[in-house]
Amino acid sequence: MLQCASSPLPSSLTVKPRLLRNLLLPILLLLLTLGFGYGGYLISEGAGTRALIETGERQLELHARGVESEISRYTYLPSLLELESSVTRLLLDSTPAHRERVNQYLEGLNRRAGSRAVYLLDTSGRVLATSNWQDPDSYLGEDLSFRAYFQDAVQGRPGRFYGIGSTTGEPGYYLAHGLVHGGRIVGVAVVKVKMEALEERWEKARLQAFVSDENGIIILSSDPTLRLKAVRPLSDQDKERLARSLQYYWWALNEWQPLSRQRLADGVEAISFPPQSPEGDGHRPVSYLMQSRQLNDTPWNFTLLTPVQDLRREAMIHGMLAALGFAVLAFLLIAWNERRKVIATRLAAREALEQANNALERRIAERTSDLRASNQHLREQIRERRQAEDTLRKAQDRLVQAGKLAVIGQMSTSIAHELNQPLAALRTLSGNTVRFLARGRLDVASSNLEAINDMVDRMGRITASLRAFARRADDHGQARLGQAVDAALMVLQVRLKQVPVNLHRDYPDARLAIDQTRLEQILVNLIANALDAMSSQEDRQLWLEGRTEGTDRYRLVVRDNGPGIPPDTRRHLFEPFFTTKPGELGLGLGLTLSASLATAAGGNLSVAYPEAGGTAFELYLPLLPDMEPPA
Prior knowledge:
Its EC number is 2.7.13.3. By secondary structure, this protein is of the alpha+beta class.
């Protein structure tokens, strides 16, 4: 038995454990490597998702506030019409004259506000006046009583509505306000706002976002293919109701449904779409992180889509690095174990590890250097852009000031020419006076001195008009119309001699709520433009006609019988730097400055084209509150 117990084991029994260990160890290491890689992938994906959510929340808040700001900037505009007396007169007495006046007022208001359209409805929903009254697709006479915004406004509630126009087929956001007179609603003012600027900003920023309304319909989107799609299933009753309301005109409201969606947090979902989406990559579904927020003062929702392909790609890289790290660690452990057996193998493994580390550090250093260079380049671009913006702003300010200086320069040249004759006469009279005094002819010397005194007074009046025109003025003050007209004609007396006109004055004198110098500047610009327009014709007629409107406004018309303004240039009249004169005769700032001065004083400047020909500029200014309107 002792001999049997001490007998050696068969060779087959000693080989099997080593073979088993050599087979199981690689499998175990492979499984652990995959486990570490998958764990690193999950950790990186979770951290990246949280970072994307935080970044998305900031972008969501920023762009949502941008949408709210774009909506709220026009909320005051409908109620503004309640302050316009001509609007109330049209609602109470719908005459062609009242309608034409309100059409022109709405056209100017729409142009200055930058909205799509401003129009006025009576209590039956019929459009009485509109800013696009001259367009082929004008709203004038349209029956819009079926619109929800009209039904809300006519009952005294604020009308807020997004839809596609039944006349033009253009989408827009409608703001309506009931106009009250005598304690009752006599009409509804509506402003249609263009929202395409938001989509353009999103596209420029490469932002994937959309806004859905209370019906779940996408009304604004950086991706045009998503517009007017439903973000939630619509029942047959909903589809029939929306089709009957014509809110979206005749568009087919298809549903926009992702392949899958997973709720991650409140207002945050992970969604995916088929690969045929424009953002698709190969045959893989396109995944997004979707974050939504309700907009203030509206039932709309702003949704931000953040692609997660880069996040998953980075998570996969991190997982591979984790697996690689574990593999390196396992390799180090195996190398350390083999160190006792083969020194050469240990040295080779160490050298290989050092090379790998050096390569990794070199790549990290190169990447860090590239990032620093990119950041420096970006800072330089930002600094250059800010400098360019400051330079542009200063240049614009200098050009605006140059408009007034150009007028003063032209006047100075004319006045210098006007002063040459009195100065020459003064030189002759003064010399003759000395000789007459020496001869004792005191009567002739006295008459010469009186003539010299008259010429000095004349030169003083000329320079006083230039000095008064050149001085700075405030937005507020008071002015006499008759005095302003006389001062403007005094400034332009040389032009009037060169281009004689038949001047017709038909206006009662009035005190207006505008600085005297600014009123003179407006009149100089308007009369000078009329003289330029009639310079090439023999019959020159200039009318100055004025009258009071109501108790608080004064209307002055400067009309000529010139060739008029071509239709293709009429819409550019009040644009800065636009002029039909040669470059040496004007900068294109006269009408722009005149309109700005009138607006700053609480009035406005508009243009009309009489059927008899010529051009008529209409200047509306407020009367002083404490004065009686002229008879």
